[in-house]
Write a structure and sequence with these properties.
The chain is an alpha/beta fold. It has 15 helices and 15 strands. It folds into 2 domains: 232 residues, Alpha-Beta Complex (Spore Coat Polysaccharide Biosynthesis Protein SpsA, Chain A); 185 residues, 3-Layer(aba) Sandwich (Rossmann fold). The longest helix has 18 residues. Helices cover 32% and strands 19% of the residues. Helix 14 links the parallel strand 12 and strand 13. The strands form 2 sheets. The protein has an 8-stranded mixed beta sheet with strand order 3-2-1-4-7-6-8-5, with helices on both faces.
Length: 469
């Protein structure tokens, strides 16, 4: 009886593929109990011919290899393999991941005990040959998985930090459903629709599936005893980071919730730490602190809004002037959730197209945020609207200072790991604020309602090594 179907999508990794398949011949789960489906997704070298050349070494496997002459992408290849599966349990294993002898047995035992989205332990997830040589070194017999895993267990740098991070389960653990080494009941996979093939390039598509499985009642559970090891190979890390940020937006558009926004804004690990504080901030923020009670006192602003076909409001629509068309889109922690119109989000990532709105208005909501976070909201508004107006002292009761608990939480978790590649604006100095409306008579007294148009200031990035002394 086939208990497990292992799906391995493959694209241009012939050496790693053969090693991975050989590691599957050494499983403690009998080879009669599982099948292996390789989906060759348009590789330069036909995986079918490659496997035929190694038929003797792989003869114990119940193995089928299918080929796409034109690549369909990671999501499509995995879905294709799943459709061919005979077993009730699917294991997705990346082509470059060696399988520990106990990997499949642990996945199967876990799923028999409880239906979950299981994510296994992976050694050396981000290492390339160069960084492996630098940080690890030594001789490694990549052709012998048992030998590699025995050695890896003694190398602290190969420890998977998710072991400690995910020891205490949280609702956002779906964000760690990384398909290096995962399992899911086939009926659950099919019920949620499999991998979303709108992710046309690899990255974040596995996380998005983890979220849908979580919403369907299957939490992501980390399995420290179901191990894989990522074989070091050349990779374009810069491109990967850019691709993931692009796909973050695909994820947020599919699931525009505060939890998903936090993952896309602050990175997966930081979001996990910050989410409790973000949720409490959302729940205690008073609408009157971020409403538009005094917007009518700003004639140029109201004129701009009256002439706009599409308006994005970031804050609260409470006390919106009845003389103006209602905002087309509303975003804010106090907003009602109305599909396609109103989103209960922080505003640091928005599920909208570039330039989707004619005008965006940011209420005194910015005052409740630490400066770096407010800058991210302004930057997103500038991406999504052709004109951005920031209000000051226009709410019923504007916040006097940034929310202390939120500021404390985001001081440590507000800067995502990828800022060395994708820069974020963190200071008001990085924008130009031009007065649009001032109080009558030109007074600029504290507490008088004001409005400013905002534009990004030129802010070139410079490496320390480029500074001349």
């Amino acid at each position: 009886m086939t208990d497990v179907s292992v799906v391995v999508p493959a694209h241009n990794r012939p050496k790693e593929l053969l090693r991975t398949l050989r590691s599957l011949t050494r499983q403690t789960l009998p080879t009669t109990d599982f099948e292996v489906i390789v989906v060759d997704d348009g590789s330069r070298e036909d995986a079918r011919a490659l496997v035929r050349k190694s038929a003797a070494a792989l003869s114990s496997l119940n193995l089928q290899v299918v080929r796409n002459e034109k690549a369909v992408g990671a999501s499509g290849a995995r879905n294709q393999g799943a459709r061919l599966a005979a077993a009730e349990l699917l294991v997705f294993l990346d082509v470059d991941c060696l399988a520990h002898p106990d990997m499949l047995a642990v996945h199967l035992a876990t799923q028999r005990e409880r239906r979950v989205a299981a994510s296994g332990y992976t050694h050396g997830r981000e290492l390339t040959p160069e960084t492996w040589e630098l940080r690890i070194g030594g001789e490694w017999n990549w052709e012998s998985a048992p030998e590699v895993f025995a050695k890896a267990a003694t190398v602290g740098l190969l420890h998977d930090p998710l072991t400690e991070l995910l020891a205490e389960p949280r609702s956002s653990d779906w964000a760690f459903f990384w398909t290096c080494n995962v399992s899911v009941p086939r009926d659950a996979f099919e019920a949620v629709g499999g991998f979303d093939e709108d992710f046309d390039v690899k990255g974040v598509e596995d996380v998005e599936l983890g979220l849908r499985l979580s919403l369907a009642g299957l939490p992501t559970v980390f399995l420290p005893d179901s191990r894989a090891l990522h074989q070091p190979h050349p990779r374009d890390r810069h491109t990967e980071l850019l691709r993931d940020r692009r796909n973050d937006l695909v994820l947020l558009r599919r699931h525009p919730t505060l939890e998903v926004e936090a993952v896309c804004s602050f990175d997966i690990v930081n979001a996990r730490a910050a989410l409790p504080a973000l949720t409490r901030f959302r729940d205690r923020l008073a609408p009157e602190a971020v409403d538009t009670a005094h917007l009518s006192a700003l004639p140029r602003t109201t004129e701009a809004l009256a002439g706009a076909e599409t308006t994005l409001l970031i804050g609260a629509a409470d006390a919106w002037p009845p003389s103006l068309p209602a905002p087309t889109l509303t975003v804010g922690p106090t907003a009602d959730e109305v599909e396609g119109r109103s989103y209960r989000l922080l505003g640091t990532r928005l599920p909208f197209e570039d330039g989707q709105a004619d005008v965006a208005v940011l209420t005194d909501y910015w005052r409740a945020l630490p400066e770096a976070t407010a800058c991210r909201v302004i930057a997103e508004a500038l991406r999504c609207a052709r004109r951005v107006i920031v209000l000051s002292d226009a709410a019923t009761a504007p916040p006097a200072v940034p929310d202390p608990e939120l500021a404390a939480a985001l001081e440590g978790a507000g800067s995502p790991f990828w800022t060395h590649t994708v820069a974020l604006r963190r200071e008001f100095h990085q924008f130009r604020f031009t007065a649009l409306d001032r109080p009558a008579g030109g007074s600029n007294a504290a507490g008088a309602s004001r409005a400013f148009t905002v534009e990004p200031a030129a802010w070139p990035l410079t490496h320390l090594s480029d500074i001349t002394y």
